[in-house]
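Could you join me in thinking about how sequence relates to backbone shape in a protein? We need material for that, and I hope you will provide a protein of your own picking. Once you have written the record down, we can walk along the chain together:

…
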Amino acid sequence: MRKVAPALLLAAAAACGSGDNVVIGSIPESPSANTPFIAFDNIQSVISGRARLFDQAGNPNGSAEVVIISDQPGLCSRLQLHPDYFRNPPEYYVALILFLPPTNHLGTFEPGRPGDEGTDSEIIGVKQLGQVKPFQAVKAGYIALRDWSEQPGGEAVGSFNLGYSAPAPANGLFSFYGKFKSTVCPTLDGTLLP
């Protein structure tokens, strides 16, 4: 009987996924901020790539290495069809977006730390189509990047531990941590990120 229990635990862990992509944390539903309950217990897409960044008026304002974790399958294809997916959502989804400096190097990056400019993150939970109110990372925590490639078939591998503040008029601080192993999305550039 003792040998059966570890085997059952391993089978249960395998049923939850490969373990390459794990996000721990949740945010309760907030009627005041019009956001749904947010959890990443059903990760369907983890993509990465280099993207030009644009302000809300559509003007270019830099670039970043980006990793996106979402509950939607085929996210790279969806972004190709809807470049404004993260600003004008055509469907309900949750997404965690990690922004890393466009410096093409590995290491540990901290939001707000001198030398790590461009390190940031947002969490989006869509409750109303066409409306996005992201949870913004606070200036604490880290994103660690162990591998990065922008070549077709490449991947990004890393981990993170970040806190997020609620969009107005709600308030609160929410902790998320986890790890990721993404696939390169060659059509990510041109996507309007929040």
